[in-house]
Design brief:
By secondary structure, the chain is mostly helical. It is built from 15 helices and two strands.
Length: 353
C-alpha cells in the first residue's frame, strides 16, 4: 500500500501536525519556569487542589518558595490549558498524567534547545558593532572564545559593580579569581548586560535592572520573530519582519510579559555570552543556572514588589505597545474650553452692563 504524503501547494511535504500539548510545553518553558519538570508541577498542583478549597487557597499559604513556585506554575498551566484537569482525570484515557507530562516535557526541552541554539548564533550579529570596534571576532557556533576570554562578552558579563576597564580586574575575571565583597564572582553577581547602561544609577539600580538591550532583543527574537530583534521600535519591527510565520506570542495570545519570560530571555543571553557548552540545571557551578535562580528570587522578593511592577509595565510598553497604550481621555476638551470662554465672556458682559 503506498504511503500517503500530504503536500503543500508548492509541492513540499507538509509537516505533521504538532501535538497541542507539546506546543503548550514550548510556551510553558518560555513564560513560566525554565527548568521545572512538568510532572512535578502536575503532581504538586493536583495534590494541592485535592487537599484545599480553591476559593480559600492561595500559593502564599505554602511554606516553601519551591512549593509556591510549583503551584503558580500549575495555575499557569491551567490558564494555558483550561481543560487540563479534565484531561488528567479522564477515566477512559490511558495514563493521561504520564502522557501529558511527557508531551509538556518534550515541548519544553525542544523550545529551550531551539532558543539556545539560535540565540548563540544571533547574538554575534547583535554585537557586530561592538565586535568591530574592539577588532575581535566571535564565531557563531564556537563558544570557546566567549565569556571573559573575549573583551566584548567579558565586559557584558562583568558584575555591574566592578570596573572592567581596570586591567587587573579583567585578568582576575579571566582566571576566575575575581571577588565582590570577598565572595568569588558567580552568576548571582548581576552583570552589566542585565542593566540599561544609559540610565544606570548605582544609587537606584532597580530602575535600569533587566532593561538591557540584549534581553529585549532576545525577547523579540523568541516571541515575535528573529528579524524583529534588529530594531528598537517594536511596532516597526513587527511590520517590517520578513518572517511569514506567526510569532510565538501571537500563537498563544500573549499580550503581556511574565516574570518567567523576562528571566528566560535574560538567562538565554547570559548563556550565549558565556563559554559554557551546555545547560545543566543540576550543576552547582554553572553561572547561567545561578543567574537564573537569582533572578527568580528577585521577582519573588516582596521588598522589590513596586520596582518589579514598574519593570513589568516598562516591558509591556516596550514589547506589546499596541496593548498597553495610555488610556485616552473621554473628556471633550474643545467643548470644555469653549464653555469656559463663554462663561468668562458673559461674566465680563454682565459687569459692564
Amino acid at each position: 500500500m503506498p504511503l500517503l504524503v500530504e503536500l503543500t501547494p508548492r509541492g513540499r511535504q507538509r509537516a505533521a501536525p504538532q501535538d497541542p500539548i507539546k506546543a503548550y510545553g514550548r510556551h510553558f518553558v518560555r513564560t513560566v519556569d525554565m527548568f521545572v519538570l512538568p510532572a512535578v508541577v502536575i503532581k504538586a498542583g493536583m495534590e494541592y487542589d485535592s487537599e484545599h478549597s480553591t476559593s480559600a487557597y492561595t500559593p502564599e499559604l505554602l511554606t516553601f518558595a519551591r512549593e509556591q513556585r510549583n503551584y503558580r506554575a500549575w495555575e499557569a498551566l491551567l490558564h494555558m490549558i483550561p481543560t487540563l484537569s479534565a484531561i488528567l482525570i479522564d477515566p477512559n484515557a490511558d495514563q493521561p498524567i504520564t502522557r501529558v507530562s511527557a508531551a509538556l516535557l518534550a515541548g519544553s526541552n525542544a523550545a529551550r534547545s531551539d532558543d539556545t541554539r539560535t540565540i548563540k548564533i544571533a547574538i554575534v550579529e547583535w554585537l557586530s558593532g561592538d565586535l568591530q570596534q574592539a577588532s575581535v571576532v566571535l564565531h557563531p557556533s564556537n563558544k570557546a572564545q566567549r565569556g571573559f576570554n573575549n573583551p566584548v562578552t567579558g565586559r557584558l558579563l562583568c558584575p555591574i559593580g566592578l570596573d572592567y576597564g581596570d586591567e587587573i580586574v579583567r585578568k582576575l575575571l579571566e582566571t576566575h579569581q575575581a571577588t565582590v565583597d570577598g565572595e568569588p564572582v558567580n552568576g548571582s553577581h548581576w552583570p552589566i548586560f542585565a542593566f540599561d547602561e544609559q540610565t544606570y544609577n548605582p544609587a537606584m539600580p532597580w530602575e535600569s535592572f533587566l532593561r538591557g538591550r540584549l534581553i529585549v532583543q532576545a525577547f523579540r527574537h523568541i516571541f515575535t520573530s528573529p528579524t524583529s530583534a534588529f530594531t528598537d521600535d517594536h511596532a516597526a519591527s513587527v511590520q517590517n519582519s520578513r518572517s511569514t510565520r506567526t510569532g510565538n506570542a501571537a500563537l498563544h495570545g500573549m499580550t503581556r510579559v511574565t516574570p518567567g519570560s523576562i528571566v528566560y530571555c535574560a538567562t538565554q543571553v547570559h548563556f550565549a555570552l558565556s563559554t559554557a557548552p551546555v545547560f545543566n540545571k543540576n550543576s552547582k557551578n554553572n553561572d547561567s543556572i545561578i543567574f537564573y535562580r537569582s533572578l527568580v528570587k528577585y521577582f519573588e522578593d516582596p521588598h522589590f514588589a513596586a520596582p518589579v511592577q514598574d519593570l513589568l509595565d516598562w516591558w509591556n510598553r516596550a514589547v506589546f505597545p499596541a496593548h498597553h497604550r495610555p488610556q485616552r481621555s473621554t473628556v471633550n476638551h474643545g467643548l470644555r474650553s469653549m464653555h469656559a470662554t463663554m462663561d468668562a465672556f458673559r461674566a465680563s458682559a454682565e459687569q459692564h452692563a
